Amino acid sequence: MPQENTKRGAVLAAIESAGAIADLTAKRDGHYEHELDLEIIVFGRNYNGKQVGPYLRLFDYAPGEEIVREGEWGGNTFYVVVSGRAEVYVGADQRSSKIAEVQPGAQFGVMDVLAGVPRDSTVRAPRNQPVRVLEVQRPALRLLKKLPKFGETLDTAYREHGRAVTIQDICRDAGLDKGAAAHLEAISRFQVFPKGHTLFQAGALIERLYVLKSGWARLDPGTRMSAAAGESESRKWNTRANEIHVGPSRCFGLDAVRRDDDWRYTCELTERSEVLEIPILELRSRPELRDGLLQAFSKTAVPNTTGGGEEIFKPLPIALAQEKLIESGLVDATNLLVMDMDLCVRCGNCSMACHRVHGQSRLVRRGIHVTRPVSLEKNAGFQSLLAPAVCFHCKDPECLTGCPTGAIARFPDGQVDIDPKSCIGCADCATQCPYNAISMIPGKPAPTHAFGWRKWFDVSPEPLPPPVEQTEDLVAVKCNLCAETPLNPPGASRPAYSCEENCPTGALLRVDPRAYFAEIRNIEGLIFKDSTHAIARHTSHKDRGKLLAHAAGLGATLISIGLAMMGAIRYGLETPLIGSWLDLRWITGLVSLIAMAGVMTYPVRKQIYKRRAGPLRYWMLGHSYLGVIAGALLVLHGGVKSGGLLTTALIYTFDLVILTGLFGILSYTVAPRALTKIESQPLLIEDLLERREELSNELGSTMAAALPEARELIKKRILSRCLSFEFLLRQYLKRESLDQLIRSVNREAKEAASKLPAYEQGNFFSAVEKAVTIRRLDALIYLHLAMKLWLAPHIVSTSLMLALMIVHIIQVVYFAVR
User: Which of 207, 209, 452, 468 has its CA 20 to 30 A from that of 409?
Assistant: First the structure.
């Protein structure tokens, strides 16, 4: 373990000898020029009872002791060598090789902080001498950048490191030696450009080879494609986009390495990007280097053509999905939560699970909606995905930049998290987050009430938490991937997330966006890949465990029913099989009872949020199949005679349980898919009801302000039509976007509207739009309700059936013993 030196004199002396940060201790007229920054960085301050800083610590490392390890997340600290020389190694422990030494006054680890990537090397003290280093935490960067020398050194180091790493990857891929790498480093330039920067213009001479190290680009040969294209347009596989989206590792201008050529398209960067520029004339003078690069980029180069080839211009559905994913920032998540809206039954259990685990839900079921093709094949189906407003754990998190205390940081497991002990409630991180994924809550939240066994059978919605109204004593909270909770105990074989574990249908998944979205995976190059987005494990919603559960459930159902029917045909129900009393009626009754016991484990599992108990979707399947098995065997158990009044009531209540359960399965299968076909943006039922009320009030106001003849026309021609049952069915049966539906009704009513005064026609068509929208909202609301309509009868009939079954069992046992 390194020894920390806490003597103030030693720390100040170390800063004075630490190269780029030495200006922090500069004096003028006997006083420190940066006294306030120095105090915070070196000594720290107390802010509302919480310590802010210090952000700099002095450590002595013994000979051979490790300072940083390759592969660790290094987004929070960098180091400055004060005395001694630190050695840099790459590779595994047994096969590591020394590649450099860090001299006194030099920094290391800065790139890991700025780029948000794991350490790319191991740094340790030499075996024969100690090393003294300054450890500098991320929050100090904001203050140190005020120092001219530090800012200049930081920028230079960033560019040099970026160029060196990029060239190292290129040369490794091309099989080039160190001499070629050195020449390439001498002639190339590493640039960092902001979002919206035009890298090159169509028609200009190609003078440089551009290699996109990180970021995304849009190549436009002419007319822009609109990401807001209508739904019918976005599904046209026979239409090709007139833009090209490309990702990291792509190369531009390779066609001009051997001969002069002009750019055929304009390249605009769609986010902050790092680019390596290689002059083509310099490259041509080195045939060996030129040929090596031609080979290295043969698979990642973007052809300089405006033709409509398959490899260049993608079908419109794919291109629109690429644009949405890139411009929304979803592709830059390291761990993205996605909800397949065809599977989501809008139960809210994901938010409740988050609330129960953390005490305050960090999952809001609103966010970025993407409609994308299921696969890259022509005429493929479409997937409606919602990325909720929950932390993406971005590769380069904006929320980290403004935190004055370092409370929010990237933790060792890769998740971006907040330390409540250091958070001073300034809300800088919440305002910086572009996805509204950080909330401010009271520092001492109100205690939550425990949920008793009655909640297992309660059909009422969970109460909403009270709104946060206080403005002081707040702390920031966000998704931390359920780290340091019982869901992820030390040594767990896989990560578990409360939202994903407690989704009854498997609609929620934590994914790596660059692996999950094939349309993005397809436009990335093959080099420069790192592990910064390898936290999540899923690549599709095709759940193998769910398929196996279906196979096991179906097999158990067929086998149990088949054996029972064969036994009934061969032996009858009351022929003793073993001993003098165990007949098929007893066997079917006992097996049904066991199956019913299994069925009732589902509501028990549904209340388990804080520890691993297996994904809820598997329990849901077991609940369904065991219910079918119990129902079929009870039918055989009862035989052709229903028995007395008690037995008859029991059979009828059980039939009702089965029927309501089957209706629930049907509604869970049909309603979500119907919703995704007619909704433009997934909304909560509360949002739909509120919007419907607003539109109803607006429609009333419009009619009140209209002339009597216009009001009468609206009632007879518009409201009678739009609020009819036939028009409601049209929402479900005919695939139309809301805009298409409004245009259709406007065309039908145009002739009637022409009889109104010109100044009154605007109100008339406004009423048409509101009436059509209200009916679309009705269609969505009814589907939401359909997914809950079966629940109350199912639970009531289940409760009644259990009570009758207990009485029946007592009765049977009593008569059997007597």
Answer: 468
CB of 654 closer than 8 Å to CB of 633: no
How far are the Cα atoms of 604, 743, 744, 745, 768 from residue 750, in angstroms, in the given order? 58, 10, 10, 8, 11
Q: Which amino acid does the sequence have at 235?
A: R
Half-sphere exposure (Cβ direction) of 4: Cα atoms closer than 13 Å: 5
The whole-angstrom separation of Cα 746 and Cα 52 is: 62
Cβ neighbours around 381 below 10 Å, total: 9
CA gap 414, 393 in Å, rounded: 8
Distance in angstroms (rounded) separating the CA atoms of residues 390 and 509: 13
Sequence-distant (6+) residues with CB within 8 A of 578 are none
How far apart are the C-alpha atoms of 615 and 628, rounded to whole Å? 21
Q: What is the 3-state secondary structure (H, E, C) of 563-599?
A: HHHHHHHHHCCCCCCECCCECHHHHHHHHHHHHHHHH
Pairing of strands 251-252, 301-302: parallel
Instruction: Decide: 224 and 538 in contact? Cβ < 8 Å.
Output: no
In which order are the strands placed within the sheet that holds 131-137?
3-5, 56-61, 131-137, 77-83, 107-108
| pLDDT tens track for 19-61 | 778 888 888 887 888 788 888 888 887 776 777 778 888 999 9
Residue 501 has pLDDT above 90, yes or no: yes
CB atoms within 10 A of CB 208: 22
Q: What is the Cα–Cα distance from 390 to 353, expressed in whole angstroms?
A: 14
- Whether 775 and 731 have beta carbons less than 8 Å apart is answered as yes
CA angle 391, 335, 384 (to 5 degrees): 85
On the question of a cis peptide bond just before residue 54, with omega within 30 degrees of 0, the verdict is: yes
- Which residues are within 8 A (CB) of 193 and not within 5 positions of it... i.e. 6 or more apart? 199, 215, 269, 272, 273, 274, 275
State the distance between the two ends of the chain, measured CA to CA, in whole angstroms. 77
**597-to-337, 373, 775 alpha-carbon distances in Å:** 34, 42, 44
Distances (CA, A) of 27 to 22, 31, 150: 11, 5, 17
pLDDT by residue (tens digit) across 351-410? 999 999 988 888 888 899 999 988 877 777 889 999 998 999 888 888 887 787 888 888
- Nearest CA to 131 among 59, 58, 61, 66? 61
In sequence order, which residues have a C-beta less than 8 Å from that of residue 282 and are 6 or more positions away? 187
Q: Are 361 and 352 in contact (CB under 8 A)?
A: yes
* CA–CA dist 416, 412 (Å, integer): 9
The share of the chain scoring above pLDDT 90, in percent, equals: 28
| 440 contacts 476 by C-beta, under 8 angstroms | yes
